[in-house]
Amino acid sequence: MKNIKLTIAYDGSSFFGFQIQPDVLTIQGAIESALLKILKEKIDIVGAGRTDAGVHAINQVVNFKTNLSIPTEKIPIAINSILEPSIIVKEAQEVPLDFNSRFSAKSRSYIYIIYIMDTSSPFLRNYVWHLKERPNVEEIKDALSIFVGVHDFTSFSKSNGEMTVREVYQISILERGSFLVFYIKANAFLRGMVRLIVKALIDLGNRELTLEDLKYILDSKKRGLVKGIAPPHGLYLYKVEY
């Protein structure tokens, strides 16, 4: 028995998220289908993060166990020959049998990209959140530390019935011309957490929220206090560390 770890990248635009669902195209479903053709056995993969529909990944990690002896270095070539070009297996490694891409992870990081311009770009529409006006980035920077540390992130979650305490290690915002790039690293994330945090920070930068409002939302531990959510297509799973 081998335990194989894959590092993959994907354009999530045409997928209904990572997790397999009946009758729709998902990342997990596409990879498991490719592995079935290659290994001639049903494979269940485990993903480090269950990205939502439209969300992308630069370095997603999955693992699976197999009894077959295909050389590990040949796996990316074989899978990529079957997968559509929107999913790429970047690397394959044999790992210990007790490795689990989800539960063995020590941290995950995401980036969120915003494009600021009077008109949107047809070439970027599936990969950024388009804003017509630039928010006050200095005010956003002053608020970032609110989220660092161990907090109950119920107010910044779409999840139900799960532990809502997470530890955020780092959060930052970078300006590059017409682009703003948020970076956030934590031990783990709740469903919708990054997108809700980004939306709240943009609302702050647009003076639709105050710093006190943001603190109140976090401390309240109530869903629905953030008005709306940043769209999925600006979000990228950036890195998983073990």
Question: What do these coordinates show?
Answer:
The protein has 242 residues and is an alpha+beta fold. The protein has 2 domains: 2-95, Alpha-Beta Plaits (2-Layer Sandwich), CATH 3.30.70.580; 107-241, Pseudouridine synthase I, catalytic domain, C-terminal subdomain (Alpha-Beta Plaits). Helices cover 20% and strands 31% of the residues. It contains 5 helices and 10 strands; from the N terminus they run βαββαβββαβββααβ. Strands 1, 2, 3, 4, 5, 6, 7, 8, 9 and 10 form a 10-stranded mixed β-sheet that branches. β8 (165-176) and β9 form a beta hairpin. The two termini are 22 Å apart.
Q: What is the string of SSEs from the N terminus onward?
A: EHEEHEEEHEEEHHE
What level of helicity do the residues show? 10-25%
With helices defined by DSSP (H or I, 4 residues minimum), what is the helix count? 5
CATH superfamily of the largest domain: Pseudouridine synthase I, catalytic domain, C-terminal subdomain
Write down the overall geometry.
globular
Radius of gyration over C-alpha positions, nearest whole angstrom: 19 Å
- At the fold tier of CATH, the topology name of the largest domain is Alpha-Beta Plaits
Main pleated sheet: 10 strands, mixed
Could you list the spans in which at least 5 consecutive residues all have pLDDT below 50? Answer: none
What's the overall average pLDDT, rounded? 96
Give the end-to-end Cα distance, rounded to a whole number of Å.
22 Å
Percent strand equals 25-35%
Classified by CATH, the class of the largest domain is Alpha Beta
User: Number of DSSP strands?
Assistant: 10
Provide the number of structural domains: 2
CATH architecture identity of the largest domain: 2-Layer Sandwich
Name the quaternary structure: single chain
